[in-house]
């Protein structure tokens, strides 16, 4: 029997671990995609996919024919990770170079969702995560499209965030070495939108896009769109 | 026995798969971090870590005490994925919204590297991937630092890239709907460097940083730094 407490809590760098759901949810809601891991014949598999958090569960997008989603009909042990790179960390010592990041890792049993209302909410939120408000500015799914969307649900019961933040580690004896040290922040930004339909003006939610605005896809929560 | 051909080749969207090493290597060399998956007691685990490709193998960074690295002394079945988000894809239909991305998934048996020359090359390249040329502008590792670096080697024998590129899918009957469709390109960019040592000027490789320049960390390959 696995000791589940050891799955979500890292044994290395415990000071980087965060178990509070507010921190965890903010990372899950900002990350635009995740990696889903599962086991086939004792061997690990990984796929990138898009996710939406709704309350206390993570919902993962798939197509009805994909292997993990077929396997998940009876409950599939999975591990899901999201990682956001926040900065490159330059130490005076080669050895202490690092990256600032925010990641979340969730373990549990994923199950296929068949409830159509939940599928509707998932697809709306997924599209509103791409850009807030987009759901109301495109054609809604047909019943056939809902039917061909398979959805995995993973309860967020065994989940933790791991965050590296702040300055580089330095050895005291390196203090006076003549090398620059510091942090180079990294950001995800949008370029110029590419319009396929030049007759239709580019919507404001496309022009003003930012990763934090993508958020949890609730157009009614009054997000400012600004990134702190 | 697992049919290994089914591990690296996706059963869904085969038109998105690319097996040529030039395509695969470019994605591995641009991605700043990866996700490493392995199995413990039949259950999947995932950790984000940094990688360097050297020739036909992927090298993954760890600390001597970390679980997968201890397990890998005798060879650990792993799956490694990198994913770069290239753009948000807006379709006239909610259902066809998507993301443009480039990902690589590699399967195989990872082993711990003990060769010190290879560890030296790994650490140099890792730091030069953070910023080209940095290795020659910081303190080299000590023997103790090399000793506390554990390195996993994964031969790139079973590896494939999956790429989504180009415009959204549209249904013919949606053609005249009054919704904007197109692509919003995404880029990783650097913000203003944060200096801890204001007496030392910010190096040019920090000021001119770009993800493509981070590349494979070889300062001698004459990369332009421009992203195509």
UniProtKB/TrEMBL annotation, chains A, B:
Q: Which InterPro entries match?
A: Pyridox_Oxase-rel (IPR024747), Split_barrel_FMN-bd (IPR012349)
Query: What is the top-level taxon of the source organism?
Result: Bacteria
Signal sequence coordinates: none
Give the first-level EC class, as a single word.
oxidoreductase
Q: Which UniProt keywords apply?
A: Oxidoreductase
Pfam families, per this entry?
Answer: Pyridox_ox_2 (PF12900)
Where are the residues of the annotated region Disordered? Answer: 205-228
Q: Report the EC code(s) recorded for this entry.
A: 1.-.-.-
One molecular function GO term is: oxidoreductase activity
Q: What is this protein called?
A: Pyridoxamine 5'-phosphate oxidase family protein
Which species is this UniProt entry from?
Tenggerimyces flavus
């Amino acid at each position: 029997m696995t000791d589940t407490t050891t799955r979500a809590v890292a044994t290395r760098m415990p000071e980087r671990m965060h178990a509070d759901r507010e921190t965890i949810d903010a990372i899950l809601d900002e990350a635009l995609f995740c990696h889903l891991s599962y086991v086939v014949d004792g061997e690990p598999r990984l796929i990138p996919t898009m996710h939406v958090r709704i309350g206390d569960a993570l919902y993962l997008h798939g197509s009805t024919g994909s292997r993990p989603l077929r396997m998940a009909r009876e409950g599939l042990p999975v591990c899901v990770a999201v990682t956001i790179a926040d900065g490159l960390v330059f130490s005076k010592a080669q050895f202490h170079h690092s990256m600032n990041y925010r990641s979340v890792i969730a373990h549990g049993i994923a199950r296929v969702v068949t409830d159509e209302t939940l599928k509707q909410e998932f697809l709306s939120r997924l599209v509103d995560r791409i850009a807030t408000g987009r759901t109301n500015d495109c054609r809604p799914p047909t019943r056939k499209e809902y039917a061909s969307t398979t959805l995995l649900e993973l309860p967020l019961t065994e989940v933790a965030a791991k965050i590296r933040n702040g300055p580089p580690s330095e050895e005291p004896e390196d203090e006076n070495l003549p090398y620059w040290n510091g942090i180079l922040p990294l950001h995800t930004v949008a370029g110029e939108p590419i319009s396929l339909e030049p007759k239709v003006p580019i919507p404001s939610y496309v022009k003003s896009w930012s990763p934090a605005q993508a958020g949890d896809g609730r157009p009614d929560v009054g997000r400012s769109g600004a990134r702190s």
